[in-house]
Amino acid sequence: MANRLMDALGIKGYRVTLERSIITDSLQKVEPHFTAEGLYRFLQKRRSRVSLATIYRTLSALTQMRLIKKFDFGEGTYRYELNITNGNKDTHHHHLVCVKCGKLIDFESDFFPQLNHLAEKLSQEHRFIIIDHELTLFGYCKQCASD
After folding, report:
1. How many domains does the chain have?
2. Coil, strand, or helix at residue 49?
3. CATH number for the domain harbouring residue 65
4. Closest to 29 measured CA to CA, from 52, 55, 2
């Protein structure tokens, strides 16, 4: 998977460097909804000398290529997650976000056909080509709701 990310960077004209290789290799090892700063701390613990600026530039490039997704869950920082699996297919899903503790829960649901139908209808109605969508629901997780 890291090789696929590195190949994609090279194809798009980005320099294929040791630092970028370390970053792409680490993306499957960090928490699923990581921040750039969290990735930086992860790499520092492994005695890597990759700079935070290089991490931001690499994440930006991978986001533009849609190989990772960038989210704003209202925390004052962006979170990222891989958008591909080893099988090279999109890992599309949605999120539940606890507004009290910040817990993030990935979910898939039986209503996706209805959501896709709505997206298709909106696309036709407004003559708008939809290339992606995301659904984020904010509320309280089970733990916080019972506190």
Report:
1. 2
2. coil
3. 1.10.10.10
4. 2
Q: Are residues 63 and 110 in the same domain?
A: no
Q: Is the pLDDT of residue 86 over 60?
A: no
Instruction: Report CA-CA distances (Å) from 104 to 1, 80, 82, 116, 141.
Output: 24, 12, 15, 23, 9
User: Do residue 39 and residue 107 come from a single domain?
Assistant: no
The CATH number given to whatever domain includes residue 96 is: 3.30.1490.190
Using an 8 Å Cβ cutoff, are 93 and 137 in contact? no
Look at the alpha carbons of 51, 55, 61, 62 in this order and tell me if their dihedral is positive or negative: positive
Sheet holding 136-139, edge to edge: 104-107, 94-98, 136-139
CA angle 11, 67, 73 (to 5 degrees): 145
Q: Is the pLDDT of residue 92 over 80?
A: no
Which element (helix H / strand E) includes 72? strand 68-72
Distance CA 57, CA 129 (A): 28
- The residue range of the domain holding 141 is 92-147
What pTM does this model have?
0.77
User: In this structure, are 38 and 10 located in the same domain?
Assistant: yes
